[in-house]
């Protein structure tokens, strides 16, 4: 029985050892608990030892970075810890707000914020160590903030920072908070998260980010291979299934494409991890034709790959050939990455409606589950600006109050028989 969910997408997992999840719920059915959190955040929850850990930011300038622990059984808020932000910025719907998902293990929870705060805490909330990466390596200039979640192995936390000002890949000792290694990168805009996997006997850190998919040795940060000419891989992270790596890309950012690159559709491709001349490498197996994704990462499951756009269009393709099997609209726009367990695939809609379909080459909807009452939705207490940072995007300001944009479903953690679902200022548990 799976009793933990340790990172963003559980390290890229399709469900791990989970055998069953709820199939139907509503505001009056199967909601075990609902907890309001201080602050506001976009990170997914992580779970260990009967505790749910999640992050948020608080204040008009996001001046407080918060870490919370809740009891998994009851939802009771057990503790909150605060760190001062090194990079205050107006709380806005157009800037990331506690977007990076933490990682957790048997000894602690490790958190990262878009202001550069990086910290390790024990399960009781005691700070083990803390750092400001902004103070150490320079300020971050992306007008939308950063959103890279942490990755981990047994003793190391991996931090990816891709920013127009500074960019680097960092390996940090979990026990001490000190660097194991640091690799400088070409400055760029990207919000993707790294993934730890195995290639033969070697452990790799896979990074898909604005033009490239790269494999790094987790021991020392050595770049082992790189695939270029990728367009639009700035938000979705890769999904790994055996020796296949499925890349996600969005056409919404085609303007960031490098000369001579693939189209965004072609960049939703499949790579195979191979050995070439005795060294780890990767090759492109197929390129996409039509299927794309936006915020959500692709999901490989039982020989199929699922992509979902922000508008709620699901594409299903053959994992071996890339042949499209269907494209269908689900019941909600979708920002969170999909999840597969047993015979079903779950799509967690931005507006709180989770569409469940049957896993397979034919689209078959099983359930459509609303999380909250649209007449009485959960509300956030945080002050927000609804004005875009870039005046050129003024047309995107569709509202003048947070209530007209919120609530938003951002992420989830899955455990045997239950889901913990994250909104900006609330956690829900479905059993």
Automatic annotation (TrEMBL):
Region (Disordered) location: 369-400
Q: Where is the composition biased (Low complexity)?
A: 386-400
Which residue intervals define the domain Pyrrolo-quinoline quinone repeat in the entry? 28-135, 295-377
Annotated Pfam families: PQQ_2
Give the matching Gene3D superfamilies. YVTN repeat-like/Quinoprotein amine dehydrogenase (2.130.10.10)
Q: Which InterPro entries match?
A: PQQ_b-propeller_rpt, PQQ_rpt_dom, Quinoprotein_ADH-like_sf, WD40/YVTN_repeat-like_dom_sf
Spell out the protein name for this chain: Outer membrane protein assembly factor BamB
Q: Which organism is it from?
A: Armatimonas rosea
**Organism classification:** Bacteria, Bacillati, Armatimonadota, Armatimonadia, Armatimonadales
């Amino acid at each position: 029985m799976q009793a933990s969910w340790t990172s963003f997408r559980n390290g890229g997992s399709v469900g791990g050892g989970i055998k069953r999840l709820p199939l139907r719920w509503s505001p009056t059915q199967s909601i075990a608990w609902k907890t309001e959190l201080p602050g506001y955040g976009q990170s997914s929850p992580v779970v260990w030892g009967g505790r749910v850990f999640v992050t948020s930011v608080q204040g008009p300038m996001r001046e407080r970075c918060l870490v919370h622990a809740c009891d998994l059984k009851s939802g009771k808020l057990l503790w909150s810890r605060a760190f001062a932000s090194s990079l205050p910025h107006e709380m806005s719907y157009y800037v990331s707000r506690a977007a990076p998902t933490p990682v957790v293990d048997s000894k602690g929870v490790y958190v990262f914020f878009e202001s550069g705060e990086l910290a390790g805490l024990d399960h009781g909330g005691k700070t083990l160590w803390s750092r400001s990466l902004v103070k150490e390596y320079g300020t971050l200039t992306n007008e939308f903030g950063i959103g890279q979640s942490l990755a981990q192995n047994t003793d190391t936390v991996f931090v990816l920072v891709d920013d127009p000002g500074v960019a680097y890949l960092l390996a940090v000792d979990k026990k001490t908070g000190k660097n194991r290694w640091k690799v400088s990168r070409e400055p760029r805009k990207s919000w993707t998260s790294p993934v730890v996997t195995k290639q033969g006997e070697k452990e790799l850190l896979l990074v898909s980010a604005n033009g490239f998919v790269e494999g790094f040795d987790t021991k020392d940060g050595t770049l082992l291979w790189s695939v270029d000419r990728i367009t639009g891989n700035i938000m979705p992270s890769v999904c790994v299934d055996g020796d296949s790596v499925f890349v996600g890309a969005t056409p919404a950012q085609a303007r960031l494409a490098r000369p001579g690159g693939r189209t965004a559709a072609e960049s939703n491709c499949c790579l195979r991890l191979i050995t070439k001349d005795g060294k780890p490498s990767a090759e492109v197996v197929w390129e996409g034709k039509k299927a794309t994704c936006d915020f959500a990462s692709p999901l490989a499951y039982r020989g199929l790959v699922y992509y979902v756009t922000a508008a709620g269009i699901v594409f299903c393709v053959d994992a071996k050939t890339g042949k499209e099997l269907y494209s269908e609209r689900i019941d909600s726009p979708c920002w969170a990455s999909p999840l597969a367990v047993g015979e079903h695939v779950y799509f967690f809609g931005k507006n709180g409606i989770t569409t469940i379909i049957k896993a397979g080459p034919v689209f078959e909807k099983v359930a459509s589950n609303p999380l909250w009452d649209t007449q009485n939705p959960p509300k956030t207490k945080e002050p927000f600006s609804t004005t875009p940072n870039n005046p050129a995007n003024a047309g995107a300001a569709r509202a003048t109050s947070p209530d007209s944009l919120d609530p938003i479903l951002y992420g989830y953690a899955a455990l045997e028989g239950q889901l913990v679902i994250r909104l900006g200022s609330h956690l829900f548990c479905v059993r």
